[in-house]
UniProtKB/TrEMBL annotation:
<dbReference type="InterPro" id="IPR019910">
    <property type="entry name" value="Lucif-like_OxRdtase_MSMEG_4879"/>
</dbReference>
<dbReference type="Pfam" id="PF00296">
    <property type="entry name" value="Bac_luciferase"/>
</dbReference>
<keyword id="KW-0560">Oxidoreductase</keyword>
<dbReference type="InterPro" id="IPR050564">
    <property type="entry name" value="F420-G6PD/mer"/>
</dbReference>
<feature type="domain" description="Luciferase-like">
    <location>
        <begin position="11"/>
        <end position="275"/>
    </location>
</feature>
<protein>
    <submittedName>
        <fullName>TIGR03564 family F420-dependent LLM class oxidoreductase</fullName>
        <ecNumber>1.-.-.-</ecNumber>
    </submittedName>
</protein>
<dbReference type="GO" id="GO:0016491">
    <property type="term" value="F:oxidoreductase activity"/>
</dbReference>
<dbReference type="InterPro" id="IPR011251">
    <property type="entry name" value="Luciferase-like_dom"/>
</dbReference>
<dbReference type="InterPro" id="IPR036661">
    <property type="entry name" value="Luciferase-like_sf"/>
</dbReference>
């Protein structure tokens, strides 16, 4: 699973039906994984479970569920249910969260790194042992009944949308990898990969989420990207990685152009240390260019799969 697509649908019609149809389309093009953000409307683990059942073989992931306002016991139940429903094809993505998420739940965003550490510690215990006896400063997790969901195998992989040094260190210690977004190749290679690799006991997964559109209307699509991605410029963690890359606008991190341009841009992320790349915002230029982008992604995914197979064959 080295190249995936983040899916999102319009607000008209049945959202779940639209996403299932999209997932079928990208799977038919040879793309092996689809990912879903967690907003304040649909539930991403439930959506992933449905897609995984409806589209056999495709890997499904959430990116990312904020830990603020949520409890490890409930997230463990959701993740294991999705894992059982998909027969082992679910990937749990978490996020530190933000003041926006905290205000929606009427809770505080104080001490986010402490909360992340406690959340991952308790969640890891739940997934590894089927119970927990965790008493932290911010969280308590002491289920009176077993928490293992039969069929939730293998153990659900846990990734965190960590990009700052403190969050990356906690992620390296307690999770399986990170899900950076709007962190360009320079930021990956110089600020993200070294930190998480240093603190991880095993090779961490680096799943880079990258806005990308194959289109002939580069100027118009870039203008749309400036509008739609401007929100992230107001979030400190995203603002930091945008500036680390030497950019002033989030849209500058979007890959926009013809097939050759996008393929080269994606390769730069692998060269920088990404183990996987997920293309986002593929709908910026409309449905025709979105399909064109998915078609390229399917071809690139096939090329990488062929290369991996060839590399594994013994030399003659």
């Amino acid at each position: 699973m080295t190249l995936g697509i983040a899916l999102a649908a319009s607000n008209s019609g049945n959202y779940v039906d639209q996403i299932v149809a999209q997932a079928r389309s990208v799977a038919e093009l040879g793309i092996g994984s689809v990912w879903f953000g967690q907003r304040m409307d649909y539930d991403s683990p439930a959506l992933a479970a449905i897609v995984g059942r409806e589209v056999p073989g495709v890997q499904v992931g959430t990116s990312a569920i904020p830990v603020v306002g949520r409890h490890p016991l409930l997230v463990s139940s959701q993740a294991q249910t999705a894992q059982a429903a998909t027969h082992g094809r679910y990937h749990l993505g978490l996020a530190v969260g933000s003041t926006l998420a905290a205000s929606a739940f009427g809770t505080s965003f104080d001490r986010p790194i402490t909360r992340l550490r406690e959340f991952l510690t308790a969640l890891r215990e739940l997934l590894d042992t089927g119970t927990a006896g965790f008493h932290g400063e911010l969280l308590t997790v002491t289920p009176p009944l077993p928490t293992t969901v039969p069929g939730a195998e293998p153990r659900v992989p846990v990734l965190v949308a960590a990009m700052g040094p403190q969050a990356l260190r906690v992620t390296g210690e307690l999770a399986d990898g990170t899900l950076p977004y709007l962190a360009g190749p320079k930021t990956l290679s110089e600020h993200i990969v070294p930190v998480i690799t240093k603190t991880s006991e095993t090779a961490p997964r680096i799943v880079a989420f990258v806005p990308a559109v194959v289109t002939s209307d580069v100027e118009g699509t870039r203008a749309t990207a400036v509008q739609q991605l401007a929100f992230y410029e107001q979030v400190p963690s995203y603002r930091r990685v945008i500036e680390l890359e030497g950019a002033s606008r989030a849209a500058e991190l979007a890959l926009i152009g013809d097939e050759e341009t996008i393929a080269a841009g994606i390769q730069r992320y692998y060269d920088a240390g990404a183990t996987e790349v997920v293309l986002t915002s593929t709908d910026l230029a409309g449905p025709d260019d979105q399909h064109r982008t998915w078609t390229l992604a399917g071809a690139l995914a096939g090329d990488r799969a062929d290369s991996s197979t060839a590399a594994a064959l013994p030399a003659e």
